[in-house]
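Anyone else keep sequences and structure tokens together like this?

Example one:
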Amino acid sequence: MGGPEIILVFASNTLILNAEDLLEEKGLPFTLVPVPKEVNPNCGLAISLVEGDRGLILPALEAAGLRPASAYRRDGDEFSPWPLSR
């Protein structure tokens, strides 16, 4: 699958680490990245995924009760809100 990059931001460090563990355990494709300052000026981590993989990743997170607080679509250096329900 492919497509644009999606950044998933979680409400706490605990949630992001739990999400990382879950996705690694399931062998799902993602990258742990710093939260872009354009999205949130506070330090933290986020999950980066290819938009085409959302059908694998979002259901796994939801089933584990790990819903992201927000999501953004990256287009170069620009970020736009991305709806979590699709």
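And example two:
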Amino acid sequence: MDKQELIFKIGTIRRNAGLSARALSLKIDMTESYINRLESQKDFLPSMEVFFRILDECKVSAEEFFYHSPETYKEDMEILRIFKKLPLEKRQALINLFNDN
């Protein structure tokens, strides 16, 4: 993931969380201009501390943020949770079924 994509995703999760730049800035103890500059000028990255505060306030885990397909993250994790509960022979049957198609 390059810098532009990372910054785009930060803006996306902020908007998806229903937070304005001002609301997020207040929650993470930064200025509104910091958030606006981060998202619009794309000339710097937040520190790790600020990045994780943004994720926390937007209710997004780091795993979800970096997941290859954030739109399907929750559904994919639900499928994985169900799959893990299956006995080994049923797992293998599903793998074989999917590999045949």
